[in-house]
Amino acid sequence: MSQQQDSLLSKLDELDNRYAEIDRQISDPAVASDVAKYVPLAKEQGKLKSIVEKYRQYKEVVAGIVDAETMLADPEIEDDFRELAKEEIKELDARKSSLIGEIKDTLVMAGDAAIDSVIIEIRPGTGGDEAALFVRDLCNMYTKYAEKRRWKVEILDLSATEMGGFREVIMNIKGSGVWSELGYEGGGHRVQRVPETESQGRVHTSAATVAVLPEPEELDIQIDPNDVLEHVSRAGGPGGQSVNKLNSAIKLEHVPTGITVSMRDEKSQHKNRSKAWRILRSRVYEFHQRQINKDRDDKRRTMIGSGDRSQRIRTYNFPQNRLTDHRINLSLYSLDKIILGEMDDLIAALKDHDKQQRLESL
């Protein structure tokens, strides 16, 4: 058995033992009746469940192979039983290889699959009005893809331009597997096309930045309210029109990290505060995850979670109907369909590349 296989099995033993330990803890009435203790344990066990179940199947298969080999080693075994034992070993070996492959896939991707809510922030880069229109197009692309997947989309904040573009959009997308699919979208997106305002037919290059943040549950990240300064101000409408006389705009400042969030989308101060806290939790969670993952990412770059907004990850070339993802050197000549939300082939290629990288680093 290779050293890599030994290391993997050792890791799986640890997870199996942890799963069993959680089982014992949540069976304790004192824990079961304490929501603060029970819920985090149940969530941790839920994340481990699929890996542990497959590993226990794997151990059963290995035990079956040992039994069949013991039978085969018996010099007094009849020929019919010997043939049956050989056939069983052949079938169990194939099942063993299949299970170890499934376990590896589950092990490297399980953490991402467990996150079912993300906050996506899209802002224009260089390109003026055309960049703002590109932000609108990216927002629509993600919304249509989410609708195909039957995920729930909520616009948390939106600032539109007179041309119909977006100065900024912050959206929440909820659904099974949302982070494992949209987590690759963080970074710089560049568009090459003839703008609606261009009379000479010249191709312009514009840009937008996308940040994708996993939305943690309150149990996943605890922010001390004493670390957050809240500023309340009057929300004003465009050009002084429809000015809300109530103090409804909220700005939160997380002092330890310097992260700030402003929210003036709703007329209700309560709704603005609630949305601002959701975005703040996601940004602070991402900040801490980035610190935790820095050492790991120095050794091994993983696409999901990097999301560096200064990194140009993709080019949308409309004259050639071509989308190019620079991280995996992939070009797809179906940009017209992708921009309408048909992102399946693109996301599948990114996931496959990421999985191979993670498997190599196991």
Task: Describe, in plain words, how this protein is organized in 3D.
The chain is an alpha+beta fold. It folds into two domains: 3-113; 117-361, 2-Layer Sandwich (Alpha-Beta Plaits). The protein has helices at 3-26, 29-32, 35-73, 79-113, 128-148, 178-182, 269-299, 335-338, 344-361; strands spanning 117-124, 152-160, 166-174, 187-193, 204-214, 228-233, 249-254, 259-263, 312-317, 322-325, 330-332. An eight-stranded mixed sheet has the order 2-3-1-5-4-9-10-11. Strand 9 (312-317) and strand 10 form a beta hairpin. Helix 1 (3-26) packs across helix 3 (35-73) and helix 3 (35-73) runs antiparallel to helix 4. 25% of the residues are buried. Residues 238-244 and 296-306 have low confidence and may be disordered.
The CATH topology of the largest domain is given as Alpha-Beta Plaits
* Assembly classification: single chain
Percent helix range: 40-55%
Low-confidence stretches: 238-244, 296-306
Distance between termini?
15 Å
The gross shape turns out to be flat
Q: What is the C-level CATH assignment of the largest domain?
A: Alpha Beta
The CATH architecture assignment of the largest domain turns out to be 2-Layer Sandwich
Kindly estimate the percentage of residues that lie in beta strands according to DSSP.
15-25%
Number of domains: 2
Structural class: alpha+beta
